[in-house]
Amino acid sequence: MGDILANEADLLGMIREYLKLEEFNDTVCSFDEECKNKGKLVSKPQGNTLRDSKTLITQKDLLSAFDDGDYKVFFELWTENIPSEVKDTDSQAQRLEFYLHIHFTIHPLRNHPGSHDRAEFDKRISHFRQYLETRGAALSQTTEFLPYYALPFVPNPTTHPSFRDLFQDSWMPQLKGKLEQFLSVTLKARSTPRLLMLYKHLSNHQEKWEQLQLQLVESERRTASYMRRFNKMQASYHNLIGITAELVESLEATVSGKTITQEYLQNVCVRLFSSRMRLSAAQSADFTRPGTASSMLRASIALPKEVPMLPSLDYEKLKKDLVEGSDRLQSLLLQALRWRLTRSLHGEQRDAVLQAYISNDLLHCYSTKQQTVLHLLRSKNETVRQYMARLINAFASLAEGRVYLSQIHCLVKLLTETLRKEDEDPLTRKNVLVALQKLSLRRSQQTAMIADELIGWLVDELQDSDCLSDYTLEYSVSLLMNLCLRTKGKRKCAESAKHVLKVLTDLLGHENHQIRPYVNGALYSILSIPSVRQEAREMSVEEILCCYSKEENPELNRQIEFIIKQLNSGQSTHIYLQWPSPSEDLMETDLDKEEVLQPQPRELSGESLLTTEYLGIMTNMAKAKRKSASLTQPSVDEPLQRPVTPIISNAPDQCPASLSRGQNRGQNIYWYLVYYFYYFFLLDLSSRTAYSDHGGKNVWSRRRGVIF
């Protein structure tokens, strides 16, 4: 309370100053009256008084130098106090400056017409000529000033008819009047109120604080990484000292005539290399062959091939041009930034690019500005919208990118808004849909999508599935399944259970069999709701499922058995499991397909645009890629009960090895799924409380999904 009273007068003064400056005159009167009645002191804006006093002194000095003809003092004050944007862009300021130079040039001729100092006049003529060749050159094409460009070459300007007006008695007072008017407007510009300055100061500090937080997290990560490396090096050092001691003893024994057995040498070499290579590989190496151990030892310390890092960029300039630039520039920059991410080498180089984007807040995640890079999704230009959607999709393809995007609170709303409104460009719509699907692997984004009625929109779209491409169909169904895994999503489906069940059962008969795992997962999930089960029984869903179980597909038949069992169960099944936090990446080649933007001849684009116009200093921060937790291989029979993303067949170099051995994605996808009902048959064992309902709530410790 004491602190408040001590600063109360200043606070009230700042409030009054702001209200008065914004011309809330009635409010100011009421404010003054209430402060007076309560006996509150209100400080006066001393800063403004001092500022006004300084302005008057500057104005007086300029006018005094004008009268004395002292061009050096005048133009020093002019340069120091007149803002550059006014001098360089304001036409009235440029015209006035030109006439002021004329005034100071002819000043000796006006004051001493008969006996002027020729040397001083020549000096001023030289200064005027220099002005004409620099700042004054901009007015050389103006008819009003064209005659004065001949002034330096006229021997006696006082008698020349073109300059007669300059020596009239009225010319100098008129120029001084224009100068006074200009100075009163320019020097007494509207000052910034203290309250607004304080707000801007706090906003800047908030942004700096958030940047420092990011740097702190990065520093802690690097410290932990260095500690792990140090501990590993220390353990290797201790191991090496022990082996060295044994080898010295063996050498001493050899000198004494004792022999060294092959088994002993094999054991020493295995211990020596076990920390640098797999134990099986070390044991299988033939150390009896001369030179094997020494060759392996030299190879173990060979420096790895260095991955080149891409040049750093000036991200502040980039973000400014992305927000304020032309449609063409915005599109080229969005394309170049995406290419830098998608075309970088998988691993350390790509991680460094992504981390640079995140640490420099490329998408304005932490910005308080109203107009950000993300709002390019609302651009009137079709290409800008599409390339913004492509860049977001590229971010969402990487685990760290999804973490960054999930911190942008308005992102899901912007994406769903674009998805519903975008009719002109199917590529924009496709990229937005795929980005949403990848973001649905995170719980917070699932919640936002469900709240934004995305489930209803998806069901309506899938109702006419024949009009959708296979790519769009797979991502739409998998997105729907991911949202249906949440309790809120199931309840949302229950609101229109008949419609949802009709669409899902129709999709089972679609010719694209790749969508069946997702359809089965969605059906299995929503059938845990009693009202949905009741509606399914009335619709004879079991008979429909039995029709599909007659197909010669054992895996599909087994899944349908689980769905039917869920349909006929009398209670909801909820399981409590501790899930790992997988973070696999897949940068699809589709991201760079069907480019509608092609550079014109001699137009910069891609990496050349970035490194030519936006080269920066030390903005790249390499970040080690998180290792994904090893996942337990699930049964291939049960419906999907974990958020997933469709596998893209055109990126085999980055898919797990076991995927390439399969005949189709529908069969092989199960090798990578973490499923919710891992021990389905144990549900009948009611005595196992570890798998209980947990108070009727579907409890998951983690909800992050797997992306392939």
From TrEMBL:
Its main location: cytoplasm. InterPro entries: ARM-like, ARM-type_fold, ARMC9, ARMC9_ARM_dom, ARMC9_CTLH-like_dom, ARMC9_LisH. Keywords: Cell projection, Cilium biogenesis/degradation, Cytoplasm, Cytoskeleton. One of its GO terms (biological process) is cilium assembly. Residues 58-188 form the ARMC9 CTLH-like domain. Residues 449-568 form the LisH domain. The keyword Cytoplasm applies. It is found in: Cytoplasm, Cytoskeleton, Cilium basal body; Cytoplasm, Cytoskeleton, Microtubule organizing center, Centrosome, Centriole. One of its GO terms (cellular component) is ciliary basal body. This is LisH domain-containing protein ARMC9. It comes from Myripristis murdjan.
